[in-house]
# Entry
Amino acid sequence: MNNIAINNATIQSWIDNRLTIESVEQFLISNGYETVQIQEYIQQFKKIKNSKKLITGIIIMGIGAFMGFLACVIAMINPIPDIQDFFLFGLTLVAIGLMIYGMYLVF
# Structure
């Protein structure tokens, strides 16, 4: 199998321009790339695109986990009894939502 030099700057520009896989494939075909080269470019394009989504998902899950922990601790301490429900239900609900969205991005 031939080693194909893939230009990551080109792939990054495709991601920045929000191109779909089909449009990338059409671009490569129109520029005369071979089938093997097109497959390698598409594979690398998917890999880079998914890695950015993975990192974003992990960050959002971390924020959600911290927010849930903070809501739990504040609800247990109960510094202001009138707004305990906000921390116990509201902030926890937002934290769970963030964690689910983060899991959606990761998986």
Notes: The chain has a mean pLDDT of 90. Residues 54 and 106 are 5 Å apart (CA to CA).
